[in-house]
Q: What sequence folds into this?
């Protein structure tokens, strides 16, 4: 997803320095340059449209490819994206401080393990982690926060929180936002998010008269009818 | 301790205290009626208007209207907050910032074309920096651009222009302290330029010199003016 790339860009800007230095050192061994293009005879790197603060750095190619990215990632930053990344970073940091305080204040109580129906997480989500045992890697936290934001930015979520206040939530029945500060493997986390979003669909708004969704249903019905008609000959 | 004791500055001009900006909140009287209506709707119901258009309208006006350029940050912040509350999105902010970035990139051309527009641009960027806080903190992305603008204003050719010096000291009064916290080194460098400009440069008008002296003292006093300094700069000389 392109959205993910913007955040990778932030981190890559710091890591990139090392990457570029590495490529200079071993350039005679590498078939491809940092931007993914096949190396030919040495040519000038394109100049970037960077702001003056980057003028002192050596010229770097305008885009680069990493093993994780799905294609060339643009280095050109725009202020809109930078501020959004900034905002997410500060939100995540603030959340972390709040979370740490809550752990230290003993707000989370140890509970008996219950078999929770829909959750892929075998650990009970109410166990409190030791203060030193939380996820602190900002890249990870920001990626997770983005995934959570996608889920929360839906009509279904809005309807859900209006309908079911927190104190009335029943575990197993009511979806619960995965805790981004707990240590999980990437797969485990992605699966939790997926299941959470699936559960949230239960609060999707009903298809309205004349809405796109209704049009889709009608189309499917028509196509279905055509298909069966065809096969009845 | 005043940095410049012992240097005589002929004081036949006096500084006007900065306008009280709390009176008319958004200063949108300079827009035509239709645009005023658009802005008022944007403030109450951002989802119902074309936010890209709104941001362009605001930037365009800021570049023309000196009064508005100094206060446009306020209305922008309100729209940003209204949008965040209404739909958890930041379309307006993104459009505003990207448009601002374009103008910033073209600033040297703008300065050549019209000093007034250039000065409005700087006022506007600094005002945005002042008002558009993100999680109660200034936007990191704007720190260097703001400094770049101020450094440009501190160049010899700009210091000769009263209009530009006036803009420079206004911004430093308003956001100097915040800027310094975000990057002390560049503030030190900037003030070196200002000090050198004040001491060494030919072609400064007496008002220009006075403005520089005041800002040098202002920062030396930790972004505040002592009572004596206030009297010196801001009260009429009785001859």
A:
């Amino acid at each position: 997803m392109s959205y993910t790339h913007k955040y990778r860009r932030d981190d890559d800007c710091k890591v990139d320095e090392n990457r570029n230095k590495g490529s200079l050192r071993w350039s005679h061994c590498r078939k491809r340059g940092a931007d993914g293009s096949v190396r030919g005879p040495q040519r000038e790197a394109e100049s970037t449209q960077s702001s003056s603060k980057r003028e002192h750095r050596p010229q770097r190619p305008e885009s680069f490819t990493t093993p994780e990215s799905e294609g060339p990632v643009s280095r050109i930053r725009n202020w809109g994206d930078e501020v959004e990344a900034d905002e997410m970073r500060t939100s995540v940091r603030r959340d972390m401080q709040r979370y740490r305080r809550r752990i230290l204040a003993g707000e989370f109580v140890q509970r008996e393990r219950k078999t929770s129906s829909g959750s892929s997480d075998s650990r009970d989500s109410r166990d409190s982690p030791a203060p030193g045992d939380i996820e602190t890697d900002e890249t990870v936290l920001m990626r997770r926060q983005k995934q959570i934001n996608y889920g929360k930015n839906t009509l279904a979520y809005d309807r859900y929180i209006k309908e079911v206040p927190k104190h009335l939530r029943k575990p197993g029945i009511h979806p619960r936002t995965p805790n981004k500060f707990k240590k999980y493997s990437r797969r485990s986390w992605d699966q939790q998010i997926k299941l959470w979003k699936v559960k949230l669909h239960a609060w999707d708004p009903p298809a309205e008269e004349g809405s796109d969704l209704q049009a889709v249903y009608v189309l499917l019905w028509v196509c279905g009818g055509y298909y069966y008609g065809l096969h009845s000959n | 301790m005043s940095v410049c004791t012992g240097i005589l500055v002929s004081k036949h001009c006096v500084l006007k205290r900065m306008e009280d900006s709390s009176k008319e909140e958004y200063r949108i009287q300079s827009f035509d009626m239709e645009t005023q209506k658009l802005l008022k709707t944007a403030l109450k119901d951002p989802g119902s208007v074309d936010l890209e258009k709104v941001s362009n309208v605001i930037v365009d006006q800021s570049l023309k209207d000196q009064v508005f350029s100094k206060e446009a940050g306020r209305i922008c912040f309100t729209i940003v907050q209204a949008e965040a509350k209404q739909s958890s999105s930041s379309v307006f902010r993104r459009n505003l910032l990207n448009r601002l970035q374009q103008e910033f990139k073209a600033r040297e051309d703008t300065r050549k074309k019209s000093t007034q527009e250039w000065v409005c641009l700087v006022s506007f960027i600094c005002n945005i920096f002042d008002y558009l806080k993100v999680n109660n903190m200034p936007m990191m992305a704007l720190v260097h651009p703001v400094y770049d603008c101020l450094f440009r204003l501190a160049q010899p050719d700009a210091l000769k222009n009263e209009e530009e010096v006036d803009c420079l000291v206004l911004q430093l009064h308003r956001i100097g302290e915040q800027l310094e916290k975000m990057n002390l080194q560049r503030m030190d460098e900037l003030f070196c330029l200002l000090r050198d400009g004040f001491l060494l440069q030919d072609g400064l008008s007496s008002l220009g010199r006075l403005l520089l002296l005041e800002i040098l003292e202002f920062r030396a006093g930790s972004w505040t003016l002592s009572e004596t300094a206030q009297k010196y700069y801001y009260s009429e000389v009785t001859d």
